[in-house]
Amino acid sequence: MYIAMNRFRIAPGKEEEFIEIWRNRETHLDEVPGFKSFNLLQGPSHEDHTLFSSHSVWESEEAFINWTKSEAFRKAHANAKPAKDIYLGPPQFEGFKSVL
């Protein structure tokens, strides 16, 4: 199993707009071999940001890497709107391999 996560720092008051971007997004994940599940997680709010994380579970790291090179990945990111007033910097990627 492999877990791929992106951490997002979102401007205060823009949380619902960020959630709507993800709610209305066509991910095409179900088209990709090895994809298991996806969640958008909301973390703590601080004075300057609210933390979110996209969390996808894959059969293997290879399956995730194949997704990043796939036509489904290109389609999922083709209409991504840069909402500069929502995001406080680029997402921070974190990948985890299951060891137990």
Automatic annotation (TrEMBL):
InterPro entries: ABM_dom, Dimeric_a/b-barrel, Heme-degrading_MO
GO molecular function, one term: monooxygenase activity
Keyword Oxidoreductase tagged: yes
Record-linked Pfam families: ABM (PF03992)
Domain of life per record: Bacteria
Record keywords: Monooxygenase, Oxidoreductase
ABM domain mapped to chain residues: 2-100
Keyword Oxidoreductase tagged: yes
Protein name, entry field: Antibiotic biosynthesis monooxygenase
